Amino acid sequence: MTDSRLLSRFSLGAGETDIRCTWNGFTRTASVSASNYYFSKDADIFDTAGVDFCRSLESAFETAFAGDGAPAFDVEIHGVDGLAADATNGAGRISITVDSSTIQLLWNDGATTLPANLLGWPGGASSAAASPLVSPWCHDFGWYPAQFASDDRQLPVSDRETQFTDGGYPQTAELPGHVRMPMKWEKIPAVRVRPEAASLAAYLPGNYGLTLGDINCSWFTFWDRVAGGNPLNVSPDEGIRRVRYYRDVTDVDTYTGSWVIAEGSPLWSSPLDPPSFPEQAGEAWTLFATLRSHPLGLD
Can the peptide bond before residue 266 be classed as cis, meaning omega within 30 degrees of 0? Predict the structure, then answer.
């Protein structure tokens, strides 16, 4: 079995699309479109249900520097589509390469409106100039549990409504059903669950390829994005947040969705250490969450 991943769709408005960047001595503005996105690497760049943000960013870089030598860019996600995740660069971290020279992202430039945290940068300062340029944090709006889902069965649910006639006879109407997918992950490292754990060096044995302080790598950050609390994640077309599930983290174009996280999720426990004794370097979690088919259907 292989590790899995969950992605949440997010939306960028007109005032959140620009990033100032420097390549080979030229400083330009790369602009993506205001649209719905996933960090998917799927071949859905023109899919209005959710454009792949990595491919869109590649295009934005190449358009910005087209008159300066036309460099080719590649935006990848460690752990996905052939780019390895290891003890240096964990799953979910962004890698930006250019076929000549280096790229630098100017997060502290006043003309940059794209949120730095979205791509996995804490913000507040420009990135290094490098190729590949790897984000210190995992990208936002995604969760990489470093485990496979031990339960991901899809269960059709029939919706029925029963009313009584004036004569007291029951009448049952069949309503459009939905699908529920109860999910379970076991032995998840604490840094992939609690943002507090990611801020403590004791929780990064072998480093897991993560950077100290990376809040984007945790389940609770992802759940907060999906459940609310971040306006970037509200889709303007229907206002309900979509989630895609990839059984194999390395896959692209092979997912189920769209889903929403059902009310009441998640439940969790810490089976390898007593829940009353957190702050243990060996802390690992079992997590349960139920996904429900999106009311407007699949992507």
Answer: yes
> Please, what is the average pLDDT of the chain?
83
Confidence of residue 142 (pLDDT cuts 50, 70, 90): very high
CA angle 56, 34, 133 (to 5 degrees): 40
> Can you tell me whether residue 37 is helix, strand or coil?
strand
**Dist. CA 298–CA 76, nearest whole Å:** 25
End-to-end CA distance of the chain: 26
Burial 171-186 (b: 16+ CB within 10 A, else e): eeeeeeebebbbbebb
pLDDT exceeds 90 at position 25: yes
Helices (H), the chain: 53-64, 219-227
Residue 141 has pLDDT above 90, yes or no: yes
CA distances from 209 to 88, 178, 255, 259, 284 (A): 4, 38, 25, 29, 17
The total number of residues written for the chain in this structure: 299
How far apart are the C-alpha atoms of 112 and 106, rounded to whole Å? 7
Q: Looking at the predicted structure, is the pLDDT value of residue 171 above 70?
A: no
| Residue 47 to residue 179: CA distance in whole angstroms | 23
